[in-house]
Design brief:
- The protein is mainly alpha-helical and 183 residues long.
- It is 68% helix and 0% strand.
- The termini are far apart.
């Protein structure tokens, strides 16, 4: 029987977003395969996490594409992005907490592409006067990732309803980022 790598990755992503400390045995069981079969596809946890990183980048880039970040006001673009990225939020939360992705080896170029595309919408918000200039695009991008991860964990834990995720994430970020007229 041929093993569907996509199925294995999706099963691993689903399990690891709920239980980041899951063992390779648990990942294999979740995918409905043996540990030996899992190891034929992924030499170890590091290889599996790197494959999940590629999947996460692919899903985030698809969300950025679907959000049409260049259309309309920057705040509306951020709201669309949060809605589009919600299905990948759990995987993003897992990857956000995976320190091995940020140490030692060079960072995956996909993160730099995402940072640049998301940062550009915040830069556009600065230029239009929509966002506070003292909050840099890099900071707002990092804050967005952190809020997405926190929101995903809260939804997974049942503390927040999934339907509330987009509003809670976008409005908390934009509430602090939006430029206010001084009185």
């Amino acid at each position: 029987m041929a093993v569907d790598r996509e199925h294995v990755l999706r099963s691993a992503a689903d399990l690891l977003t709920r239980k980041s400390t899951a063992t390779m045995d648990e990942v294999a069981k979740a995918a409905g395969i043996s540990r030996a079969t899992l190891h034929r596809h992924f030499a170890g946890r590091d290889a599996l996490v790197r494959a999940l990183e590629s999947l996460g980048i692919e899903e985030c880039e698809a969300a950025v594409d679907a959000a049409r970040l260049d259309d309309g006001p920057a705040g509306e673009a951020v709201r669309r992005l949060v809605r589009e990225i919600q299905p990948a939020a759990g995987l993003l939360a897992f990857l956000y907490g995976e320190s091995q992705l940020w140490e030692g080896e060079p960072q995956n170029d996909g993160w730099a592409r995402l940072d640049a595309r998301i940062g550009a919408v915040f830069q556009r918000g600065h230029q239009s006067g929509e966002f506070r200039v003292e909050l840099t695009p890099a900071w707002l991008t990092e804050a967005l990732y952190g809020l997405i991860a926190s929101g995903a964990w809260a939804v997974q834990d049942g503390r927040v309803a999934a339907r509330d995720f987009p509003t809670m994430v976008a409005e908390l970020l934009l509430g602090g980022a939006t430029r206010r007229e001084e009185s």
